[in-house]
Amino acid sequence: MSFINAKVYAIESEKTLHIVTFACGTVFLKMMSLELSPDIGIETEVKLQLKATSIALAKNLTGEVSTSNQITCQVESIERGKLLTSLIVTAQQLRLESIVSTIDIERLSLSVGENVTALFSASDLSIAEVL
Predict the structure, then answer these.
(1) Would you say the C-alpha torsion 57, 98, 54, 67 has a positive or negative sign?
(2) Which of 41, 44, 103, 116 has its CA 20 to 30 A from that of 62?
(3) Cα–Cα distance, 28 to 21 (Å, whole number)
(4) What distance lies between CA 117 and its chain's CA centroid?
(5) CATH number, domain at 71?
(6) Which residues pair with 121 in a beta bridge?
(7) pLDDT tens-place string over residues 4-23
(8) Nearest CA to 88 among 102, 76, 80, 106?
(9) Cβ(97)–Cβ(2) under 8 Å?
(10) Cα distance between residue 82 and residue 19, in whole Å
């Protein structure tokens, strides 16, 4: 599980659906939610959470992708297992863990220090707590 300290930058709502944009330094993240606490407003500081298995990684990504959150990161560490591999990727003050299949990491030939794009859906991001 990755935790991210961020600040609410914008909120768009239609009936019970909310798209919330968060600022984490100069990185912007989007969250889709059917419920939004009345405590959440512009400039509210929050801790976000994201499951490691929800983060896909792309190498040399080109073209358009429908995923809301696309962050250029650098691979900080790789811990290979027989079936799954845990990677820590960083971008400015973001530090994310991604767990993917070992065979996919081998196919991508990823190594520490390489740049990758971390991809995850707005519906995979959630608020763990208001700070």
Answers:
(1) negative
(2) 103
(3) 7
(4) 10
(5) 2.40.50.100
(6) none
(7) 999 999 999 999 999 999 99
(8) 76
(9) yes
(10) 38
- Cβ atoms of 57 and 118 within 8 Å: the answer is yes
Q: In this structure, are residues 73 and 118 in contact, taking their beta carbons and an 8 Å threshold? A: yes
* Chain CA centroid to CA 122, Å: 9
Place of tokens 């994310």: 96
Task: Answer whether residue 93 shows pLDDT above 90.
Answer: no
55 CB-side CA count, 13 A = 27
Q: How many domains does the chain fold into?
A: 1
Domain that holds residue 49: 2-130
Question: Is-above-0.70 flag for pTM?
Answer: yes
What amino acid is encoded at 14 in this protein? E
Residue 128 in this model has a pLDDT that exceeds 90: yes
Q: Which of 57, 54, 44 is nearest to 118 (CA)?
A: 57
